[in-house]
Amino acid sequence: MKRERNAKQAFIEGTVRVVARDGLDKTTTKAIATEAGLSEAYIYRCFESKEALLCAAFHMEDVAFAYFLKQNLVGMHIQNAPWKDRAFQLWSASWRFILGRKDDCLFYLRYYYSANCRTYAYEEHLQCFQELFAAVEQTFKPEANVNMLLHQVFDTMLSFAARVLGGEMPDDDATTQWAFEQIYSFVVPNVREELFDLIWLNTDLTVQLSEIKSVGMWDIWRQQRPAAWQRKKLCRCDHSDSKTCTAAEEAVPDNEACF
After folding, report:
1. For 93, how many CA atoms within 13 A lie in the half-sphere containing its CB?
2. pTM for the whole structure
3. Tens digit of pLDDT for each residue in 143-188?
4. Segments of the chain scoring below 70 in pLDDT
């Protein structure tokens, strides 16, 4: 029994590395077995199919991330720090967790956005995070669609991670802050107002919640973004090959307009 458990784990970890290295379409049971240092035939003694093995690997990543978030949510209850500071600490720790596990993150990105995930693993994925969703639900206004909001946070995080791992964006403090501000911009209007009196955007700018509703977080952050971004005019389109972004304020080189 112990040998079988060890073999299962070896196959799961081998699957993560092969998918990260070769991509989902080129992942074969032979490559997984070679990576795990075990017989290909033994895979089918441990798993019903290759798809079951992929699901098990995906579930392992979900469990690890859900556990990490559960441990770090405690910091959101610290009362002597502004709510935004607490949120940034949670974001920063989570961001480092996923980027610090490159193979795991690449595997997750490739499987999560595949048709196979939606068919075979998505329901279990949702169940894995239900306890966390319930734990943070009280943070938001009664009318907020918490499930949709948290899925938007998750997808935005993965989108930024894909850009960093793909070399489109640097893995530095400016990117960490930029990604956080994007997520914070659509989260904060849904947070219960009594949780904080002021939302701190940086050391020299504070904005009342009412001002954020009227001005918009995007415009505020665009005015206050780090110096590293000042030379660019950014937009929120979804293209990468156009020489000129029609939604930006000026022409920009390839891949610089859109995040």
Report:
1. 15
2. 0.72
3. 989 889 889 999 999 999 999 999 999 999 999 999 999 999 999 8
4. 1-4, 75, 78-79, 196-259
